[in-house]
What does this fold into?
Amino acid sequence: MKLTGKQKRFLRANANRLRPIFSVGKNGLNDVWLDEVIRAVDKRELVKISIQQSADVDTDDVKSFIENNSEINVVQTIGNTVLLFDQSSNPKYRDISNGVFSL
It folds into this structure.
């Protein structure tokens, strides 16, 4: 799904108070890590990921890995932080996506 500028601004505003719940370290990116990220995004809809200084990858690598291997949208990358969004498959958890799609 392609997000508009207004939708991205709305998501960035909601993510301002979030702390990263996943990190990428020297082990890099793999399918097990991505499965955990997908489950978290399905439940929370909006997730931040931090990239540690010891990691062999940068934000562009993480962004391309996530976008190529899942349906998750990368909303923003700032420094060593990546912001992810996807609509939850469970209607009970769709608080943020209801706001996004009402714009």
The first helix runs from residue 5 to 15. The domain at 5-96 is CATH 3.30.110.60 (Translation Initiation Factor IF3). The helical segments are 5-15, 31-44, 59-69, 95-101.
